[in-house]
Amino acid sequence: MPIFAACRYLADISISIRRLGEKSIVSPPISTRIDDIARPRGKGRMRAMAPAEAGTDRLFVNSVAKCFRALETFNAAQRPLSLKELTELSGLEKSAAQRLTHTLCILGYLRQHPRTRAYVLSSRLLEFSYSMLVTDLIREAAEPHLRALNLACRETVNLMDLEGNEIVYVLRYPSSHPVSVDLHVGSRLPVFCSAAGRAILAWLPEAEAEHLLAGPRKAMTEHTVTDLAALRAILAQAKREGYVVNNQEAFIGDISLAAPVFDRDGEVTAAINIAVPSPRWSIARAKKELAPLLLQCARRISNDLAGRR
Fold this sequence. Notes:
This is IclR family transcriptional regulator. This protein is α+β, with helices and mostly antiparallel strands and 309 residues long.
């Protein structure tokens, strides 16, 4: 699709998100850093390397890593950057940053302001977002079922994916009621304390789950469970019941129920959740009324993925 059509398409979605609270299927921003470790999940899944691995891999191209470090710096800053600012924020040497910005401008991925000489990301990068948007089978399979779930419960529902030791919101339908936590597509939460993260962890191979749990576990609220033994017990309970309940562990006033989504090989590939405010819902009521809807939706998405070739 031409870039102008892709830009218009994504802009239309952004407008509907802001004005109507309609479906949110824009791809996450480019925010996964080169240093992040995305552990393999499922057969044939790719992962990013740990820094130590990259340093010893003869096939690793350091100039490509530097290029993405520069792009990530612009993405994090969310404003035009001078060459000096880019070198300071990214840690790149001035000569490397100068060559990279020049090349990216020639290729059309950066624009330089004629007066200030500052650089900014160009709309050409949206081509990658659009390609991810239209080819992601998980989003495609989840969209109609998640929308139906949102209409059935009238509460916020999300599809989340695992990236490194975080979960990322990749599809979101907001509640028709006022919400206490207003997240957006691309938002991230630690895997260990989020309902969706635990729903994925519970069905990962044990060694992989343990690797992720061994990472930093900083409490986000006074209710956050950080003890390793307690977390293992929560994951075991999730496998017995088929879903996870999270009571204000990521945000005060937020109750979240999450269930895993499986690919055609039967391996966990994502999670969906329903998020509700504690003043309006109790844990008992949420489990009674929302858990059956959540599990039904997760099964339907998994069944659709199993039928895709």
